[in-house]
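Example 3.2
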Amino acid sequence: MNIFDQTSTNWQSNLLSNKMKHIKYLLILLIATTFSGCGVYNFTGAKPVDAKTFQVNFFNNNADLVEPGIDRTFTLTLQDLIMNQTNLNLVPNGGELIYEGEITDYRITPMSATAVGANGEVGAAQNRLSIRVQVRFTNKKKEADDFEKSFEFYYDFPGQDLPTGSTLNEAIRVIYERITQDIFNESLAKW
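Structure, written as tokens:
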């Protein structure tokens, strides 16, 4: 091997090494600028908020038809959702973001009728449980985000079932999951 071949090989090796360093620096720069432009990124869709704390006041059940315990369940479900989807800290009072309101409607409505029995009595083939919650959201850091709004969702169940036990538990879970996500989207995700 002559000196020119050895010099050429060293030169190519150094060139490749320099290119790899540049590529590495470019990738680091690309990643840094991508994430710095997005602010605080998360997978829940929440926009960066200029707050560190939130509070969820107890949502009283003011519906005409009262189902015991759904007020407490709703309050805890909303607290859990916000804690799980943000880095905000839950406080009992003095929160920068405040959620309050009441359950305003809890009703069961027959959705379709069916003939039952030999004498032609009519019964419900399917029933719908609907729950409406009135929410007042206050952002002490940005008053333009404040709102008062109703959120409602429903759960359909077979007419022969009563909304008790596991049927009621599943209905409440589905309804509250949707309502609390809608409240989250309205207050923090701005969708």
